[in-house]
Amino acid sequence: CDSQGKRELICPICKELFTHPLILPCQHSVCHKCVKELLMLNHEDSFDAGSECSLPGSPRSRVPSPSMERLDRLVRSGGSQGSISSPGWRRGSVTPRVTAIPCPGCQHDIDLGERGISMLFRNFTLESIVERYRQAARAAVAIMCNICKPPQQEATKSCMDCKASYCNECFKLHHPWGTPKAQHEYVGPTTNFRPKVLMCPEHEMEKVNMYCEVCRRPVCHLCKLGGSHANHKVTSMGSAYKILKEKLAKSIHYLISKEDQVRTQITELEVLINKTEENGQLAERQANEHFERLFETLQERKSEMLRSIEQSRNRRMEQLRGQVEEYQGMLENSGLVGYAQEVLKETDQSCFVQTAKQLHVRIQKATESLRTFHPAADPCFDEFVLDTSREEMLLKEMCFGGVPDPPLIDLSNSRVYNEASICWRLSDDHLPTDHHMLEYRQSPSQEDGEDNGVWRATDRVYGPSTVVCDLEPDSLYSFRVRSCRNSMFSPYSPEVTFHTPPAPVFGFLFSDKCGFSTERLILNKRRDTVESVAGMAFLLAAERVQTGSYIGLDYIIGDTGISQGRHYWAFKVEPYSYMVKVGVASDTKLIEWFHNPRDTSSPRYDHDSGHDSGSEDACYELSQPFTLVTLGMGKLIIPKSSSTSSSSTANAQSADPGSRILPMPQRLGICLDYDACRVYFYDADTMRCLYERQVDCSGTMYPAFGLMGSGKVQLEEFLASKRLAF
């Protein structure tokens, strides 16, 4: 195993060879001890001490818990626990706990569910590969017999049942012919004694013998019959083994056949590495040159400004000092005043007049300066104060090759129909971006095998969202986005994939004109949300209460009908809703519904409710002017199908009542093909068809909704806008 191969055997947390690796739901592997440390770091004390992986010897080994006896008593005494205490079910389910850890491989948060790490499988295949690598690394050190007395002999066999290694003599001695031990499984010398059979982590005593295609994990028959995989599609382990092995072998063969191409690309990458090193050094030199020029310019401007300040200061100092000397002369016994006093002592009139005339002019000027005093120079240097805020901002915004971080496409706010509204979240660097570029392409079908889709780019986008028009129906589209700042583009965001509906979007609002019950239904102002308030208050207000009766269905329809073509719409039913029926109905059926109310009707009356009444099939016809499915209490109930139905899935659903109950999707989509007289129900998030059936489209068909008890239905925003685009 070379250094590249060894990298696959290194735990991403402890950076050492895997020790008892566990497979996370995201299919990455982590050491068992590292998962524990992750839980401790996240302040989670909810990992199951009775994990199948708690001891390396067996996936079912348990560490005794001080509270286990109390839990056993709770299980035995709790009649309401149902199947929890039945054989094959884990006792740990009495104390459900929720744990979450970040996967070190893909950085996604992994919710381990109520059972913590006890729900994770040991990756025995990876363990075997690691053990083979270890044995190859210490090939010079032989595995010794565990039974021999000193001096020990080199082992030739290892028993997987006894979990010990033997030399030939000791193996024969401890596995004699004709005894049960003779049937033990033995292999070559090894120190990796893994269990022979993979056991189900949910049901302790059951072997995994099936593969769930929905969850992509092995399951046992109890998981399929009454566990969390009851409504999932499963295949036999042999079939899954064959299919996955063929796919893996085919992929490996494809990689091997592309060896020359890989080597060529490695050479290209090495050239790119060299160019990157050279260009990086060049960029460093250029950046240094840019800053040196800036430093030189700033130094020149600094020297020039300091020189100007010094010259101005010297000039002003000289002027002010001269003025000081002048005023010093006005003082007594000094300067002008002292001289004038001496002149006054002159007695010769002609000499006095000759000198006093000029002296009097000087004294008058000094007297005037005292009256209007002004400094000879201004001490303020405001003209040399610089406002460098603009220059500082420019310097801060200077970008020498800074690449913005990529944005992330917001899956919760993005919607894709015949047009796509894609939203994204900007990076956290808090720097403004100039614009964004969204690219999209139609994903090739799985049969193509190669990704030959061409990326198409939108125009520049200056906000965090945009609309893509004219998408093909019933197709997979991939989207990615990147940001631009100062002509530098960020890396692309991770690609996200959406499935377009099979038909154009049909826009409508709820109608409050046709048979709308104002007492029990509430419409919001936009008429895109309807809520049923029927409940206990109406039972108490009634004149009589019939035991076993129910408040009747209150129907409401869309304000726009369909008379041709294919149309699709989607909506959300709140999980708390007691019972909501959704589908399509013709105008003739609406007249019957709204003019023949059944205020205390049982769900058994309506064969489309999903209720297992024995008389449903008798009154059902293949094509009726309406089709409804039932949602409520977190479930979706598919109606029974006629034995004459041409749909093979419908026949299977009719034969297996359990398969008619599915988890309620977050959003439900309906597609009506008026011309083909068929209606389809989809999980709007994955565009997986849940149910389809023929419907009589002889009249105008309307989106129909029926609410019983408390419930709420909310149309998608694109429907409420009554537009085919957002």
UniProtKB/TrEMBL annotation:
Superkingdom to which the source organism belongs: Eukaryota
Coiled coil (UniProt feature): 259-315
Pfam families to which the protein is assigned, alphabetical: ANCHR-like_BBOX, COS, zf-B_box, zf-RING_UBOX
The RING-type domain, residue ranges: 11-53
Biased composition range(s): Low complexity: 54-67
One GO cellular component term noted in the UniProt record for this chain: cytoskeleton
Region feature Disordered, mapped onto this chain: 48-67, 74-93
Entry-linked CDD domains: Bbox1_TRIM36_C-I, Bbox2_TRIM36_C-I, FN3
Keyword Glycoprotein recorded: no
Domain Fibronectin type-III, residue spans: 403-503
Keywords: Coiled coil, Cytoplasm, Cytoskeleton, Metal-binding, Repeat, Ubl conjugation pathway, Zinc, Zinc-finger
Coiled coil keyword on record: yes
Name by which UniProt lists this protein: RING-type E3 ubiquitin transferase
Organism, as annotated: Astatotilapia calliptera (Eastern happy)
